[in-house]
Amino acid sequence: MEILETIAWDKLQNGLIPAIAQDYQTNEVLMLAFMNKEALELSLQSGYAHYFSRTKNRLWKKGEQSGHTQEIIECYLDCDKDTLLLKVKQKGVACHTGNHTCFFNQITLDSIVQKSSKTIDTSNLYGAIDTLYHTLLERKNSDPNTSYTASLYHKGENTIAKKIVEEAAELGFAIKDKNAKEIIYETADLLYHSLVGLAYRDLSPDLVKQEIIRRFGLSGIEEKNSREK
Questions:
Q1: Is 54 strand, coil or helix?
Q2: Which stretches does the entry tag as region Phosphoribosyl-ATP pyrophosphohydrolase (predicted)?
Q3: Does 97 reside within a domain?
């Protein structure tokens, strides 16, 4: 596409252009995401918004899991040719939290107030792992005195790492004891604390899924030899 060459890709960080999605009828700002050249080309060709996820490190179609797609009505490029504005027809909600827009946290110099207006329960639209991970990310703004997850973040990496080691050991003992119920409980505990660790470092579990997919068809020896040093 000739239009792709007019964008100032060379001055964009990591070749990603910010894309603002706006409701085409109300002009409400719904979300901000990023596109690489391939995502923009797919968006213009298909008529539906595709973005590049910096946390998942891959291309994704808006609504690929939830069905909450964004049909592009109009697309604008700003005067500096380094930002996009998409006028979209939003199906369902734009935010994974169930809010119509991603912009519902009102901030001041010393506080964050949620102006939440959830219209959809998204717990049944995303996988349990993805839903939990996003919940853990939200807990970063919670009070450590009232939220266990927030208290782990507050205590830092040493505490988080220690909990992961403890839960792994408890799972090992449960497996050794052949206690099915405890194995399930301890596996859930280990998964939860592992996701806390990923969220602490802002690493999406989707990256782990991609790594598992990469390993399909490889023996353990081949897989270890294929890792980057």
A1: coil
A2: 129-229
A3: yes
